[in-house]
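Let's practice the habit of predicting before peeking. Look at the sequence and jot down your guess about where helices and strands might fall. Then scroll down.
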Amino acid sequence: MPDHLSLLLVVIPLIAAPVAAILPRGRLPWATALTVTSICFILAGMQLWAVVHDGVISYELGGWAPPWGIEYRIDAVNAFVALIVSGIAAITVPYALLSAEKEIPEHQIPHFYSAFLLCFTGLLGITQTGDIFNLFVFLEISSLSSYALISLGQKRQALTSAYQYLIMGTLGATFFLIGVGLIYSQTGTLNMMDLAERLPEVSGLNTVHTGFAFIMIGFALKLALFPLHLWLPNAYTYAPTVITVFLAATATKVALYVMLRVLFTVFPNGFISTIPTGDLFILSGMAGIIIASVYAIYQVDVKRLLAYSSVAQIGYMALGIGFASAMGVTATIIHLFNHALMKGALFMAVGAIIYRIGDCRMDNIQGLGRQMPWTFGAIVTGGLSLIGVPGTAGFISKWYLVLAALEQDAWILVAVILIGSLLAVIYMGRVIEALYFKPAAETNLAVKEAPILLLAPTWVLVFANIYFGLDTELTVGVAEHAAQVLGVAAK
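Done guessing? Here is the structure:
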């Protein structure tokens, strides 16, 4: 059974996607998506357990042995990311029942769940495959469905946001494919493990360096790494809330996984040090943390504020990659998991406000903290985790980032991490001030708390932020194991 888990994780949602599209209107498409995501979450948990206890899983599609055939190769790194993707999906679909019905026209609901499952398939496929071209195929599946999902937003800006994301995403995919072609021209293989064996012999060639650069730029666009983040704020702001939740918690995490895989598995150990890749990640991370956080402070739309916050949080992960050390990569993988929890909870809480008043602008949410105490509590707790207050998941991430910086005597980067947290206090403080400390408008006095179907998934993630801030056995343990699997050396 463990040998087939990787294939089932891709095939089940792929088959379910067209089924959801042809189902009649109503809640049957939602029930299909709920069943599929729940099954995939269980399978992903079984897969991670099997990998941690029994070692790497290799599945040869069609019985064709690699490198001639496509291989699904699962280790602790991608098994952990697959668990994040499937777990967030399993929590997001219950939330989608009311949220999607509120924000998406009834006749588009079946197509919405079909596109959602296709996006889910693509993201899971990226985490499972051991073939770099097959990775591109799954990237396109997830990207094309994401464009459609974003365009379903209520405002006209959703269409332009989806188009902007389409242009940037197409550029990213094109860069990635050109890079793969250049690497293939020098190695004659597309299998990642086979590439890892052949690349050391040709790593000094300019063609290989150029291919590496194209791959990195392509996924930097998908990751929204500063300053290639311009598509992200509009996409998160104008997409249906449930899609904002899902993409914010999964899509950028999968792109980050690909970067880790390419940097530390596909290319020779130490290749990151032969060219200024690490320095570029550190510079991009520093700029993203500071500049995106400052932008977040001046936003008047809470979804847009959180979108810029996501760019800043990606900056923290970039710092960890730039350290190119076991501690740095461990910190990145921990933050990859924890950021999915904190940003998922925050966007869900904002979605609950949108469900009640149809908006999330600062001047329209004043005083709602008193009318919606559970929603307000979720925003406060998620905000504390985002800031990195001890006892929350966000603190664990930043603690390990600080340790990675101190390991290399990078005191400036320690200061940047702390400044980023202080800026997060300011922009989350603005949200809390508007919700609780400003007088409520007359139209807000009659607003009731969000329905339990919205609050329950939100608070699952809120409690997860607290639990994983106190018990780090899973996150830190798996992240350290993943860093060892990637072959990152301690410094």
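How did you do? The radius of gyration is 21 Å.
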